[in-house]
Amino acid sequence: MNKKLVSMALAATMIVGAGLSVSAEGAKTVGILMPTQSSERWINDGANMKSQLEEKGYNVELQYAEDDTAMQVSQLENYVGKGVDCLVIAAIDSGVLVNAEAQAKEAGIPIIAYDRLLMDTDAVSYYATFDNKGVGTVIANYIKEAKDLDAAREAGESYTIEFFMGSPDDNNALFLYNGIMEVLQEYLDDGTLVCKSGRTSFEDTCILRWSQETAQSNCENILTANYADEELDIACTAFDGFAYGVKAALEGAGYTAENWPLVTGQDAEVMATKNIIAGSQTMSIYKDTRLLAEKAVTMVDAVLQGTEPEINDTEQYNNGVITVPTYMCTPVAVDQSNYKEILIDGGYYTEDQLQ
Ligand code: BGC
User: Fold this and answer.
1) Distance (Å, rounded) from C-alpha 178 to C-alpha 104?
2) Residue 2: its pLDDT value, please?
């Protein structure tokens, strides 16, 4: 080998060597955006994503925006400016993120939508979520069975019901509402269920930013205006936070264990589970955030390593621009009869946490 060839070979080795050392040291960075720490589920989601991604060798940055949409926009812009390699976003109001998402796309940063679909953008590659309409049908079927609505219909009996639905800027909320009405609408139509406030549409029952305080004041107003002479039998709420607000309103209105209504929720938070054990909440929806994180991590791998993620829905989640390939996890109802088996034996909570 002549001198020139030797030095070329050496240079090539050095370049390859340098390349190797860059990829070994410079692990890829995933920027995660979560909506709020005010509800326990998102704290668990963030923690599970972070630890599972770190186990796979990724660097992780995790930020919460405390339900402040402007803060979430600037967190996203900040990640894009820094040049993270991939983004995982659980939006507060995805409508305001559209421009920053376009910037991410332009910078070649792929985006995974986490739990809540990112609307009106083509910058999202995959979506990991729970079956959001399924959450609604599970809640409504629980009510249907617990109150035996078919038997009530036969007997010409009726139950009063009020609805507390999710945030209008969260695509999940309407899916959930539609799931509920798919089951309950016929009982409202034939008078087996009576909504004395008359508030049964999504527009009339949705609660901006999933606010517990609004749920409480809505419930207080409804009880004062409509339930002076008759009791409320069912509070159909879409979120554990709403169930806490409804509980406070019911206590304020003098409800006791004797006439406590059936109260639904979502997320199976620790406090909700304690309330289920105590009897002031009837059921919740368990969403295993460990599983959801696992699915989202396979999507991060897919966009960064070129692997195939697991997808089980390619039809339901159209965001107005594209239909996003999705993995939907299955929601499960928990109540007094099965919380031990599902939450404790399943390793989600310890018995001590629920004391
Ligand atoms: C999630 C629910 C959660 C709600 C409020 C929804 O987007 O799917 O699990 O209860 O937000 O945080």
Assistant:
1) 33
2) 46
Q: What gap in Å lies between CA 325 and CA 182, rounded to an integer?
A: 24
From ligand 1's centre to the CA of 239, what distance in Å? 7
Cβ of residue 131 lying under 6 Å from some atom of ligand 1 = no
Residue corresponding to tokens 């002031």: 280
Angstrom distance (rounded) from CA 42 to CA 35: 7
Q: Is 147 in the pocket of ligand 1 (CB under 6 A)?
A: no
153 CA → ligand 1 middle, Å:
32
pLDDT confidence tier of residue 25, bands split at 50, 70 and 90 = low
Q: Which residue has the tokens 């209504």?
A: 261
Q: Supply the DSSP string of 86-119, one letter for each residue.
A: EEEE--SSGGGGHHHHHHHHHTT--EEEESS---
Rounded CA gap, 334 and 336, in Å? 7
- With a 6 A CB cut-off, is 41 part of the ligand 1 pocket? yes
- pLDDT tens digits, 26-40: 899 999 999 999 999
The rounded distance, in Å, linking the Cα atoms of 262 and 280 is: 9
pLDDT in tens, 87-103: 999 999 999 999 999 99
239 lines ligand 1 (CB under 6 A): yes
For the CA of 238, the closest atom of ligand 1 is 10
For residue range 267-303, list pLDDT tens digits in order: 999 999 999 999 999 999 999 999 999 999 999 999 9
- Which ligand 1 atom sits nearest the alpha carbon of residue 239? 10
Mutational test site, ligand 1, from 45, 135, 174, 210, max ligand atoms within 8 Å of CB: 210
